[in-house]
Automatic annotation (TrEMBL):
Keywords: Hydrolase. The keyword Endoplasmic reticulum does not apply. Pfam families: FGase. The keyword Hydrolase applies. InterPro entries: N-FG_amidohydro, UCP029730. SUPFAM superfamilies: Zn-dependent exopeptidases. One of its GO terms (molecular function) is hydrolase activity. This is N-formylglutamate amidohydrolase.
Length: 261
């Protein structure tokens, strides 16, 4: 990988939004929330990446509804929330640098012309200016809580069906890799309260070291109880669905962490 001091000019200009937003940074909850795919911003220098406006509203550009649900969870729990403002098409802030889809050339059948032929210098620039600031801020929030009970919850959404793929019947997935403590407790509490809502472990994805960043780096390495939450995006496109799901998650999450504390 190139070194960051080899970058000659900045990608982000003063007219571009900052990559990170912290909501309720002094929140008193034991839970810290992150939302890696909250935004759809594109740096001015990259124009529109060649992606039509309609596609920038789709799940390929951001996790639809995840930001709104995250903000509601932050308010309901009194929990700090770290949000990423840039589109995952610019750089996916829940991927390691070498992951094939950290800078996707195609996403769910849609070409991303602005990522075709992207050199290592340009990839590193996006990583250093957008991806890493988000994770430094999240690390700082967690550092300040050292020595106190802390639970990391990463909030995402998924599409009901990928192009040419099977339908995804789950309404919610609870993801983990090596450490399933919090995921198992949360899922048990959720199912007990909502037996008719399809919810499953590690669906429609699972967490690993090659396709994920937040949980391996901030959860597993620190030894913090954690989970990655996936809510089906057609259920949280509107305010009513977002409020309903925030309430459902908060109830089960509060019960799950009480068992650990």
């Amino acid at each position: 990988m190139l070194q960051s001091n080899e970058i000659l000019t900045a990608l982000l200009s003063p007219r571009d939004p900052l990559p990170v937003e912290v909501v309720n940074g002094e929140g008193r909850s034991a839970i810290v929330l992150s939302c890696e795919h909250a935004g759809r911003a594109i740096p001015e220098k990259l124009r529109d990446l060649g992606v039509p406006p309609a596609d920038m509203e789709r799940h390929i550009a951001l996790d639809v509804g995840a930001e709104e649900v995250s903000r509601l969870l932050s308010a309901l729990l009194d929990a700090p929330l770290v949000l990423q403002r840039y589109s995952r098409l610019v750089v996916d802030c829940n991927r390691p640098f070498d992951a094939w889809d950290c800078f996707p050339v195609v996403s769910d059948g849609t070409r991303i012309p602005g990522n075709e032929g992207l050199g290592e210098r340009d990839r590193l620039q996006r990583f250093e200016e957008i991806h890493q600031p988000f994770h430094r801020v999240l690390a700082g929030v967690l550092d300040r809580r050292s020595g106190t009970p802390t639970f990391l919850v990463s909030v995402h959404s998924f599409t009901p069906q990928l192009l040419g793929g099977a339908t995804r019947p789950w309404h919610m997935g609870v993801l983990f890799n090596r450490d399933r403590r919090l995921a198992d407790r949360f899922l048990a509490e959720f199912r007990a309260r909502n037996p008719n809502i399809p919810a499953a472990p590690n669906e429609p994805y699972s967490v690993d070291d090659f396709s994920d960043y937040t949980i391996p780096v901030h959860g597993e390495r620190r030894g913090l109880p954690h989970l990655l939450l996936e809510i089906r995006n057609d259920l949280i496109m509107g305010r009513d669905g977002q409020s309903r799901w925030a309430d459902l998650v908060v109830e089960a999450l509060a019960a799950a962490i009480t068992e650990e504390m």
